[in-house]
TrEMBL record:
The lineage of its organism: Bacteria, Bacillati, Actinomycetota, Actinomycetes, Kitasatosporales. Pfam families: adh_short. InterPro entries: NAD(P)-bd_dom_sf, SDR_fam. This is SDR family NAD(P)-dependent oxidoreductase. The keyword Oxidoreductase applies. PANTHER family: PHOSPHATIDYLINOSITOL-GLYCAN BIOSYNTHESIS CLASS F PROTEIN (PTHR43157:SF31), PHOSPHATIDYLINOSITOL-GLYCAN BIOSYNTHESIS CLASS F PROTEIN-RELATED (PTHR43157). The keyword Oxidoreductase applies. Keywords: Oxidoreductase. SUPFAM superfamilies: NAD(P)-binding Rossmann-fold domains.
Amino acid sequence: MPKTIVITGASDGIGAAAARRLHRNGHRVVVVGRSPHKTEAVAHELGADHFLADFTDLDDVRRLAADLDRACPRIDVLANNAGGIFGDRTRTTDGFEKTFQVNHLAPFLLTDLLLDRLLASRASVIQTSSSGARLFGRLAVDDLDHDKDFTPQLAYGTAKLENILFTRELHRRYHARGLSAAAFHPGAVATGFATESDSFMKRIYSSRIGRAFMASPEKGAEQLVWLAESTPGTDWISGTYYEKHRPARRTNPQATDDDLARRLWERSAELLRERTH
């Protein structure tokens, strides 16, 4: 049965490749992106609805949630795919470190604002995470902005770890009410990833040699497409982080800490309340 699938970060790379594949397979895809030109181009190609949102501005996320709620009587899949690694430590207009906000706090807010629609649709929420969670992630709930120890790699790895913990807690809180959640690592994919970063990852992703060993965006999108189209509980396990279509064998030790997942959720919600008062 065709599904309504909302994909953030769908104007390029893995998100655009997944949108194209899912559209070809007969689903209604809703394209969300930051760049007006790129987002409109993908949406026009597919004949799909599209919405613009810059995740460095949480008011944009709130507008996006309201727009999606009006446009989509049901949402079968929300793919929180937007994200990236950035350069020097900067704060958004909302006052948060950019990597933390774009990769975790904005999709956390979007999911929360759409929760009633997602529950009514018995939806799946999919997070594009990364093996960077294992390689670089180190989460301290009392310092989510990395005021004490910021590096681009640490901020990115921790944000990808937060994606996994968010998935775990989303499952714990809402799976009994019909919601399913999964996170996945797409692999090293030859996209525009890290172009805004000053880290060593920019050199790798912009290197001809480095890109020669990377997968295509279409290959990187395969797990997102699989999770979106298949059946949780039958084809995949809710609350789980996947690599290569299987539950990851190795993860950051913090990624399985249920108490940490709960505290991250509570602190994220608290930070959002503080900024709206």
